[in-house]
Amino acid sequence: MLTVEEALQKILAEVNVLEEETVPIMEALGQVLAEDIVSNINVPPLDNSAMDGFAVRSEDTRGANEKAPITLKVTDTVVAGGISKKEVVPGTAIRIMTGAPIPSGADSVVQFEDTDDQKNKDASSNQRPGQVSIFAETKPGQNIRLAGEDIAQGKTTLKKGTVIRPQEIGLMASAGRSQVKVIRRPVVAILSTGDELVELDKPLPEGKIHDSNAYSIAGLVKRYGGIPRMLGIARDNEKELVKKLKQVQDADVLLTTGGVSMGDYDMVKDILARDGEMVFWKVRVKPGKPLAFGKIKGKDRNGKAKSIPHLGLPGNVTSCMVSFELFVRPALLKMMGKQNLAKPSIDVIIEDTIKNNAGRRIYDRAIIEKRNGHYYARLTGPQGSGILSSMSLANGLVIIPEDTKRVNKGDTVQALMLDWNEEVNI
What we know:
The protein is an alpha/beta fold.
């Protein structure tokens, strides 16, 4: 039986970074840049004011204070998006709003709070006095944002390999980019197996259950940036399963749920071994020991033959989700060109006693909280592999190593954080 690390290494060895695509920037969130972003403009395009105030010559404000203000003639008003055609000459000032270009002749901006304009700022332009009293000195460059200080023309703004977040979308928009070249998202085919499963919104006969696995897994695929393609349910007969598997032809990954344990009707691993290639079956982990991995035959977008990685996830709902987090998520991230594949982990003080009689690595669902500078973890309740509510309540998975027979309350263990972003170095 493989260790978690051995199984993951075999999976990652069989998946490759996908090809590039060009998409609108608003569709690129979470994807990886496949090109350097070089701006052909300065942002901001001109020197502009960082404050509402008056554009002045700093030497005209020398010695100004509240007891001995300096009075300047106001010759114009300029707002963001406008341009003043007047020059700031000795003894004059131009009223200026935040973001407005700095008029010719000015080298600083004195904010309204350091003038007597506060009492006049709500007055209409024809009611304002034609002069302003300055109560503070300014220095050259004060309250001025320089052209290109955010994005410089001709410079690389974002590097190839960058993961696109909202702030990167904003930077590209600032530079005038509406589309961007990225590593495309993997298309993930999801197939549930089992005679016991019933589609949602269908009557639920006695002894049957709704197919929750497909929806949990599709949600995880979307969460980590993939495109889920739900194929429905294949019954426990070989003919129907083979027919469903033929619908996977152009997907990048196939995920099946159920059909990989020791039951008489658990056929997925057998068909995989016969019609594709079985790489391994069973991992030394709890929950999720019956995990199958292999490849099936498919075709790419151009009709050329290719191998499609296939992960046969356990049928039990919690085992299915934990297996996804441990094995599928890193594979999808690698396919999207991401470098950081590890789930964020922290040390936690356990508040339960946990026995490990299975000789496997345990991933128990837990609620993790920070108190007094330390992280504490308590189990969500019963940890049965069919208890999906244990995943819903959890924000982390506490790890009990294979060779650890018992963890006592108060011991320190490691935990994987389910809801922390792996793009951030914690």
